[in-house]
Amino acid sequence: MSKPSTKGSAALDSATRFLRTEAGGGFALLIGAFAALVWVNLIDAESYRSLWSTEVRIGIGDVAIAETLGHWVNDGLMTLFFFLITLEIKRELVTGDLRHPKAAALPIVAAAGGVLVPIAIFLALTANEIDSSGWGIPMATDAAFAIAALAILGDRVGIGVRLFLVTLAVVDDVAAIGVIAVAYVGEVSFGWLAVAVGALCLVALMRALGVARILVFVPVALLVWVATLESGIHATLAGVALALLTPARPVQGRRVLEELEDGLHPYVSFLILPLFALANAGVVLGGSSLSDPDARRAALAVAVALVVGKFVGVSGAALLALKLRIGALPNGVDTRGLLGAAALAGIGFTVSLFITPLAYPDAPLLEGAKIGILCGSVVAAIVGVAILAPGGRHPTREPDR
User: Fold this and answer.
1) Which residue of 39, 161, 323, 351 has the fewest C-beta atoms within 10 A of its own C-beta?
2) In this structure, what CATH number is given to the domain that contains residue 301?
3) Residue pLDDT, tens place only, 336-359
């Protein structure tokens, strides 16, 4: 038997390290969400709300920004999350699997089904009943949680299922970012927007001049973030724009994009996302939370859209694409693996929780939608694990040494 090439082995090792970090990050995210639920339901809900509504002022004198602690997490720290996932998207498009049309076709089609069907189900369940602004909530798949669910199964799941699910989540993220940029924008200050665009042009100029030192870009990046925040466009989109300007190929021998990914990934996975979950997952799970009929309707619509919509949308679109010979399944992925991945795609935790307050800033719809996200994600994880669990070690998985 011939040995795998060094390049192929390196790529597989890189993918394995990425998936392990994602799995660990998923468990850290789970701890943050669990802590928030315990705090609100068993300790003191009022102290939870008081902490995250505390105003924090950063700056000097009149040159300062005052936001609640919760907004600093959602508008500030989560900018790094969106920066990171956009870096991953760009890498996949330029040097990864998504640069190959045939390899990218199936996850793109599957992701499209996994976006459109949940939206259709949500709109159908909320039509003429409650505000349907939350249609973007069940769109995205939480890669970290989904990979953590796969980690429970160990070597019963082939690497192909994991990579298919991550690629699917990447395409989902593209759609979610687009929705946040277009559908959930407040009143725009065009003066501040011009400052943000000007600062981005400066970043592009610095890149064209061959500047490779990351620290040199930090002050300009902060200006982009502040200007975006003040413009009325969601501040996290500054991270998206900056990531799109990051070179995907080496600059003066430095692999800037990979350096940023490797440096940020642990902090985002093990610090920022658990903190985000702690700040946003605190909802009362007792009957009082769903006593309002609008809250019940929102919870039901989100949960069904995640569990049923994602499964039907992803699996249906993928199977149709295969029948039409659009793309092909990754190596080692059979129909059961595809169905399991489709079910796990219904874990829509992080981006779903992020979109919820943009769509529903006030209770009871806010609380109802959050309960729907939590319940739907748990059910989707259980269904996906149940589909993938039967059988022993997957043929594509080597025994641990």
Assistant:
1) 323
2) 1.20.1530.10
3) 999 999 999 999 999 999 999 999
